[in-house]
Amino acid sequence: MRSKNTILALVVALVLAVASYVILAFVGLSGERGEGMAVRGGFYLQEAATPVMEDLTTVYNLVTYIIAGIVAFVLGLMAYIMIRYREKANPVPSKTSHNTLIEVVWTIVPVLILLVIAVPSMQLLYFQDRIPETEVTVKAVGNTWNWEYSYPDHEDVDSFVSNPLDKTQSTDAGKPYLFATDAALVVPVNTKVKVLVTSVNNMHSWTVPSFGIKMDAVPGIINETWFEVYEEGTYYGQCSEICGIKHYYMPIEVEVVSKEAYAAWIANGGSFDGSVAENNNMTGVQTAAAPK
Amino acid sequence: MVAIPESEVPAEGGYDDDGKPGFFARWFYSTNHKDIGTLYLIFGIISGLIGGFLSFMMRMELAEPGIQFFTNEHQYLVYVSMHGLIMIFFMVMPALIGGFGNWFVPIMVGAPDMAFPRMNNLSFWLLPTALICLLISFVVPGNANGNGFGGSWVMYPPLSTTGHPGPAFDFIIIGLLAAGFSSIFGAINFITTILNMRAPGMTMHKMPLFAWAVLVTAFLLLLALPVLAAALFMLFTDRIAGGTGFFDPARGGDPQMFQHLFWFFGHPEVYIMILPAFGIVSHIVSTFSKKPIFGYLGMAYAMVAIGVVGFVVWAHHMYTVGMDVNLKAYFLAATLVIAVPTGVKIFSWLATMWGGSIRFTIPMQWALAFIFLFVVGGVTGVMLANAGVDAYLHDTYYVVAHFHYVLSMGAVFGIFAGFYYWFGKMFGVMYNKFLAAAHFWLFFIGVNVIFFPQHFLGLNGMPRRYVDYPEEFAIWNSVSSMGAWITLAGVAFFFAMLIEAFIVRRRVGDNYWGEGATTLEWTLSSPPPYHQFNTLPRIEDNAEH
Is B113 within 8 Å of B29 (Cβ atoms)? Predict the structure, then answer.
């Protein structure tokens, strides 16, 4: 009778532990990955676009394997205890209240697990935080409620304000609402880019998840971080430090282009087609023509 | 010696005339630790309803993309901010420390009352005053966008200074200062009671774990809250036109300094909310396993260790503000260390049950759920401790999921566990088991449905404190909001349980849990006499913990 109960408890515990581990590891480590932005119904990290985000994903995966294991172990252990030592199966309780060996074990083993986590975490942290030699520098200034970008290395590129597109505008532009802006930050591909982040009033946070970047914009302080994107494309992020009423409505859009296109963009004073002056003239002509 | 007339000789034990004053004097001038404990519990329930309403409205707003109810987005941020402040300062802390602490710490250490009964009264009455200040802030101007303060419970400047020039935030500062002083007085009271008023033979190493938990909590309160008070006062003078510029970079101040001050309070605050729940769960696990607690000394000193280390990890809330990398590395390492004493506690609870004879009563169900869900919330804390990974997860819904697992399912499950465990002891009547079980299961399922999908939202990149979100996040947000309905049903059963229990009044005996319930409150009647231990109990050398 007693042994039958133990076997039942063991089986249930093992099944629960294994099942929960498989489910947790599956849920934690699979699922569609958004490319450059969130994906519909996604439950995993966005696709890595930079080396920092690749390392970040590796550490996330490692930690997820470990913490899913801990949860599954505790769940299995609880199931075993709850079945094996329920009042009906074990009417006479033991009086054990000390066991030095096991107390030492459950102090030492977590320390070892934490060391396994700490080493790659430290490597990631220093890789992410130590800024390498960069070729391009951009500056992002948080304002209420938009981002202003400038290129300190290029005086003839005027700084510009990146405002969110409203629902109709983003539908017309074929871009995702609450991610899209009217003027993206333009950077070259396969180039190390330094980002200077600051704010002129409330705090904000310049965030691009697929770059593994979140850097607070603090008034009076210039924070810096860096990224190097592997592939051309558009990458989105959202302000991540509460900054007031339009906190949800000041997205970040980064357009990563080829080095040639970037050089042309800079040469044109911050425009892909024709110079800014020409653009301004054209809009001037159009508005002038409109009343007719 | 003057002869005392026969009629004025106190009866044996003094119980016949229990000295209960009339209604008004009893509840408004109260100096009795049990009455004050009851007042704290009622206050906690009322605040919980207010804070719960705010979060329910937030979940309804987030059920689908677009702005449904909060056409003034400022109002949403006000709800977010007030939900946090009210739940922390006016629900969890009053219920765990003021409520159960007042009720059971004096009894457990064998004292007739708290050391300073009148200060105890002051501690309580400062709290309704503070809550009224917070409620007033809802209806006075915050900034140009509307009434109330919408700068989150962290109150970072400049959003809380130049960002909210109206009086709404001044009322919050005054309210929090009042609540802070209430907690400091309470902490002094608990420390004095526990260190000086233990019954003969009740040495520190025989003291029940709940008393240990409240002792450590009281020290955390005593050291952390003055820092919050200072930071709030600096905000207050910063806000005055032509005032100070502590946090204003234009005048040589530093907004990051506020964050350091705030989190130097804010991180110990997290343990202030969870340690008393640890103590309660220890007693429940021991009682319903019919075994003494496993590794008593390890349990007590693990809480001391958590309290000490809890003071040196604060900046892990600020990995993204632009700290030096070596500083981040230190906080990463120190934060991971906290997992060790926490693990000791989890495994000691499981070892207490090992070999026991376990009864799955209502309080035991809450305690078991607490242990498991606290582990789930704890391990995501290990993830967030990684400064590198935190660059992705900071201020996303992953963080929201993490701290609701340790608070909304940790601290709150601890509160309900204690409430059902001591319900008969406090009120002399037993709850209806069906209603209580319905409350537990609906609540358990509901909060998991709310908060587990929020991990997914965070991993997918959804930031916190957003009134509207891209439709990529719609699916898991709608699931999360369904959980709010289930939880609401659970709360309804809680009130049905309360009403039923006080109408039917099933009387309970002194020790209705029987063998296994060994602390001093089970030697008294249910409810205990108005003044207990007129003759101090004497704790024998061989007594169990």
Answer: no
